[in-house]
């Protein structure tokens, strides 16, 4: 019986994998909370958080993006059918500066820990 | 008659199994989720002509993209939900191969677009298919120098 189950598993599950991919470094919520609009400058933001992933020019103002992406993927290949699930979430921070390089706004989303390994049907 | 039908069924199943084992036929059940969905209720808190950049960031979080559109600022949030089944058939033909695939995958490239004026006040707020609600970019005029 055990041999039959092993044989069945070998035949029905010729391949399966899980993978976790990340882009850039995790963002520290504690560091982000130290950014104070009206007080913090662009130089201080760069010192605290490092180089941004993107800089957008908005007239004379600028906006910087910091992002940490997590993608979790799980798949199981049965005899004829493959099951594949992908979940991609990210922590994202946008900081907005005025013409003088003073911080005016901070927008945050922290969802990287919500990424899950999910195979359809399971 | 029923027995004959069962035999045919077995033959067909055997053929499909054989094709599958040599990777000629394969099916994939896929489920993809990209980024967080923004609920319609979150948009109810924002009012065009009244809400500010700060309100947008507080209610909707950090956008996926920030763009400049003339003197306006465009904030874009987006998410994607894909689920469905795909069947692929590949038949070797000499040095080449013929491929066929069919899918019932549903792709939801949804999003929210907020357009703010130079005074950082919300001018326009849209929710829907991103391809339909994104503002059309106009190319800035350029000086053309010719000899």
Structure description:
The complex is a heterodimer of chains A (122) and B (147). Chain A is α+β, with helices and mostly antiparallel strands. Chain A contains three helices and five strands; from the N terminus they run αβααββββ. Chain A has helices spanning 2-12, 29-32, 42-49; strands at 15-23, 54-58, 61-77, 81-97, 103-110. The longest helix of chain A is centred in the N-terminal third of the chain and has 11 residues, at 2-12. Chain B is α+β, with helices and mostly antiparallel strands and 147 residues long. Chain B has four helices and six strands. In chain B, strands 1, 2, 3, 4, 5 and 6 form a six-stranded antiparallel beta sheet that branches. The radius of gyration of chain B is 26 Å and the shape is elongated. Classes of the chains: A alpha+beta (122), B alpha+beta (147). The A-B interface holds A 56-59, 63, 65, 79-90, 92-94, 96, 105-109, 111, 114, 118-121 and B 16-17, 20-21, 25-36, 53-54, 56-57, 61-64, 66-68, 71, 73, 83, 118.
Question: Could you provide a short overview of the structure?
Answer:
With 122 residues, chain A is an alpha+beta fold.
């Amino acid at each position: 019986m055990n041999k039959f189950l092993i044989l069945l598993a070998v035949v029905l599950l010729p391949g399966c994998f899980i993978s976790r991919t990340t882009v850039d470094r995790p963002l520290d919520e504690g560091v982000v909370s130290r950014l104070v609009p009206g007080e913090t400058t662009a130089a201080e933001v760069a010192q605290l958080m490092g180089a941004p992933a993107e800089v957008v020019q908005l007239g004379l103002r600028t906006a910087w993006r910091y992002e940490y992406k997590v993608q979790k993927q799980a798949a199981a290949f049965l005899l004829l059918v493959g099951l594949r699930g992908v979940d991609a979430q990210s922590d994202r921070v946008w900081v907005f500066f005025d013409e003088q390089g003073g911080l005016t706004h901070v927008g945050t989303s922290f969802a990287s820990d919500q990424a899950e390994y999910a195979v359809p049907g399971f | 008659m029923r027995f004959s039908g069962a035999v045919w069924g077995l033959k067909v199943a055997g053929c499909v199994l054989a094709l599958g084992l040599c990777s000629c036929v394969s099916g994939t059940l896929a489920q993809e989720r990209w980024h967080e969905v923004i609920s319609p209720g979150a948009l109810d808190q924002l009012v065009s002509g009244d809400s500010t950049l700060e309100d947008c960031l507080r209610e909707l979080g950090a956008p996926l993209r920030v763009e400049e559109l003339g003197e306006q600022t465009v904030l874009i949030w987006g998410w994607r939900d894909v689920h469905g089944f795909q069947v692929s058939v590949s038949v070797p033909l000499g040095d080449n191969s013929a491929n066929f695939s069919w899918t019932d995958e549903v792709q939801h490239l949804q999003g929210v677009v907020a357009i703010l004026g130079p005074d950082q006040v919300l001018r326009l707020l849209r929710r829907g298919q991103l391809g339909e609600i994104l503002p059309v970019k106009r190319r800035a005029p350029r000086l053309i120098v010719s000899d």
